[in-house]
Structures are given as C-alpha cells and as structure tokens.
Amino acid sequence: MVPASIMPPYAFLDRPLDGEAIADDLKANRALGVPYSDEMVALAGADLKAQLDPDGPGAADLQRRYPGAVVHDVSGDKGRVAEIDALVAYLQVLGTMVDFKIYEDKKSLR
C-alpha cells in the first residue's frame, strides 16, 4: 500500500487462493449465463493448477484446450498463490480473449 493513497488496503486479497471452490464458481457463473461447458467445470481445478505451474503435468493439456491461455508462476512463490495473484492474472488477460475482428466485421456491415 502507498502511504499517501486514500485507497483501502484490500487486505482480504492477500489471503490464499481457494482453488477448491473454482468449479463451484464456474457453475454459479454458468447459472448467470456464462457459457461454461461441463468439461470446463470438471477440469477447472486442474486447469487452475496448470496455469500456475508452466512445468507441471497439466500445462500441455491446458495449452491444447485453450491455445491462448497464459501459463506462468504469477506470484513468484509456487507454494503460495493469493487472491490478488488471481485477480491480477485475470485483469492482465481481459480483452485478449475477445476476437475484435468479429465486431469490426459487424460494424462494417452497417
């Protein structure tokens, strides 16, 4: 935290990431309309672990299923991944999974 900042510290983001709940999170999002398949939900925990360890056994599988997925050690400490690490990783890829060409093509049809 920057001492001069008026932002709250968001200390809760420093707690360890609960990877066990990821499948439930995907199911909840699917109920709200996010198009997660049964396979995505079933493999969510393994995919999360694979994304954190580029040398791990699941990294190649993850890259095969999701060619643009980022696989790297986000925290610098493989033994501890916090909520903030997941949030930052998510924010870094926001927009990179969107095929903007689709939207440009639709725009040109007007």
Textual characterization of the structure:
- The chain is mainly alpha-helical and 110 residues long.
- It has one domain (16-108).
- Helices cover 46% and strands 0% of the residues.
- The protein is built from six helices and no strands.
Rg is 17 Å
Number of domains: 1
Total strands: 0
What portion of residues is helical?
40-55%
Largest sheet composition: none
Name the poorly predicted regions: none
The separation of the N and C termini measures 48 Å
- Let me know the average pLDDT: 81
What is the general shape?
A: globular
How would you summarize the topology of this molecule?
Blueprint: H1 22-31, H2 38-42, H3 44-52, H4 59-65, H5 83-93, H6 100-108
Helix pairs in contact: 3-4
Structure described in brief:
The chain is mostly helical and 110 residues long.
Descriptors:
mainly alpha, single chain, globular
